[in-house]
Design goal:
The protein is mainly alpha-helical. The protein folds into two domains: 39 residues, no CATH class; 101 residues, Aspartate Aminotransferase, domain 1, CATH 3.90.1150.10. It is 49% helix and 7% strand. The chain has six helices and three strands; from the N terminus they run ααααβαββα. A three-stranded antiparallel beta sheet has the order 1-3-2, with helices on one face. A hairpin with an 8-residue loop joins β2 and β3. α4 runs parallel beside α6. The longest helix is centred in the middle third of the chain and has 21 residues. The chain starts with 12 loop residues before the first helix and ends in a 5-residue tail after the last helix.
Length: 172
């Protein structure tokens, strides 16, 4: 529930020793710079403060909601999207029983162009789906539902997907 730009790294003593023994040049990802700065309560570079504040807000929201409720909300969102995708006459990429509750991968029908689907959804319906990567480019669409995604937003994205299919004269 934050913007990109923040990472967490956990380093044990063995890793610190390997880092110290490694003579490879490094600059930005020099963990020792981070460790030394941390001892002074600082960071080696200017941090993305707004991302830290959004992380703080997101963590407080998660503490208030509770872990079990978060898992249940994601499970419900995943099922809602999968049911909606199937109702549109599309097939899921993941086999039943191993689906993700944070992203739904949708097979692009052989009769359609996946890249054109992405373009229409974005330009006409202001909805961004991710495409497939590498060998799956143009073969699948990815519908993300990780984090705070109200049912109304999921339904609006499903409607945009349905409208895109209609624009392309898709018949299941």
């Amino acid at each position: 529930m934050t913007a990109p730009g923040l990472s967490f790294v956990s380093v044990n003593e063995r890793a610190w020793q390997r880092h110290a023994d490694n003579a490879q040049p490094r600059f930005y990802f020099d963990l020792l710079r981070h460790k030394n700065s941390l001892a002074d309560g600082q960071t080696p570079w200017t941090p993305a403060i707004s991302v830290w504040f959004s992380l703080d807000t997101a963590l407080n929201m998660m503490l208030e909601e509770g872990v079990e409720a978060i898992w249940a909300r994601h499970m419900n969102a995943g099922q809602r999207v999968r049911n909606g995708v199937k109702a549109l006459g599309l097939d899921l990429f993941a086999a039943e029983g191993v689906e993700s509750n944070t992203v739904t991968s949708i097979k692009v029908p052989d009769t359609l162009d996946g890249l054109e689907m992405l373009k229409i959804a974005r330009e006409r319906y202001h909805t961004v789906f991710a495409g497939g990567q590498a060998s799956l480019k143009g073969q699948i669409l990815r519908f993300g539902h990780l984090g705070y995604m109200p049912d109304e937003d999921l339904d609006a994205a499903l409607q945009a997907l349905g409208n895109t299919l209609s624009d392309l004269d898709f018949k299941p």
